[in-house]
Design goal:
Elements: E1 3-5, E2 8-10, H1 30-41, E3 48-52, E4 55-58, E5 60-66, E6 71-80, E7 83-92, H2 97-110, H3 128-136, H4 143-154, E8 160-163, E9 173-177, E10 182-187, H5 205-228, E11 232-237, H6 242-257, H7 259-262
Parallel strand pairs: 10-11
Antiparallel strand pairs: 1-2, 3-4, 5-6, 6-7, 8-9, 9-10
Helix pairs in contact: 1-2, 4-6
Length: 265
């Protein structure tokens, strides 16, 4: 049943809104919640709040049920300088959480509370989306690295993280098994030119082509130098299944730790 008040339709006049209209599914992971927000907003980059100096914060919509009035209210939330900020967006009354999130994002955009993240003038990326991909594939402690380390740890293996296999050689591996002399590299699909997922940038194509080729040449050189020093090099693409790759790495490490391997077998 609906009631119109000040031009606003209220669906829940005589009964409480069901949980499916506002409450997230039980057990949803952080990644699943982020994906839910991305879909509702129309993409990850559409969840941007300007925080000054050309910087953006990634926002989310929180739905709250006010039982005394049987209303579902939407709030925009983001982090700024280490503190959580919140802004009231409006009331929603669809029968599903998915629809209410989508409507709340529309209201937030119409009110000018959020925008779509744009590229800085100095960026080489062809679009905000490609810039997001580049940023996600840079640096250490990436999600694929953490998932692989967790899978290895569950298998009883211990290792060093972000270490040089050969101390006097300026080459750092993502995971290092010192005694077994196994060096594992988790390569980002963009920065290392994955044959399955690498898509060249349109803007500054020559620059990026040279950059990726240089990374691949350095990878090959690193492999050769470490092998000559007696190390086993394992390279894993970030898109590969962490459980399967962990199984392969564990097998290689234990084989090199076996007595037959120590005796040259």
């Amino acid at each position: 049943m609906t009631e119109t008040t000040n031009g606003q339709v209220r669906r829940w006049k005589d009964r409480m809104p069901p949980n499916r209209a506002w409450k997230p599914r039980a057990g949803m992971s952080r990644e699943a919640r982020a994906a839910e927000q991305d879909r509702a907003a129309g993409g990850r980059l559409a969840r941007a709040v300007e925080v000054g100096d050309g910087q953006y914060a990634r926002a989310s919509i929180a739905l709250r049920l006010y039982r005394s009035t049987r209303r579902i209210r939407a709030y925009l939330r983001w982090s700024q300088k280490g503190e959580t900020q919140e802004r009231y967006v409006g009331e929603v009354d669809a029968s599903t959480r998915t629809a209410n999130l989508a409507e709340a994002w529309k209201m937030a955009r119409a009110a000018g509370y959020v925008t779509t993240e744009s590229l800085p003038a100095s960026s080489w990326a062809s679009s905000p989306a490609s810039r997001a991909v580049m940023s996600a594939n840079k640096g250490k402690d990436t999600k694929p690295e953490k998932l692989l380390r967790s899978a290895l740890h569950k298998r009883g293996l211990r290792y060093r993280v972000g270490a040089r296999p050969v101390p006097n050689l300026r080459r750092t591996a993502d995971i290092v098994f010192t005694k077994a002399r196994v060096a594992v590299f988790v390569d980002g699909c963009y920065w290392h030119g994955c044959p399955d997922h690498y898509r060249p940038a349109n803007k500054g194509a020559a620059f990026w082509r040279e950059k990726i080729a240089g990374n691949q040449a350095r990878d090959a050189e690193t492999n050769e130098v470490l092998r000559e020093a007696g190390w086993l090099v394992i390279r894993i693409w970030e898109h590969e299944d962490p459980e399967q790759t962990a199984q392969a790495v564990a097998k290689a490490v234990r084989a090199r730790q076996s007595p037959s391997a120590s005796d040259g077998g």
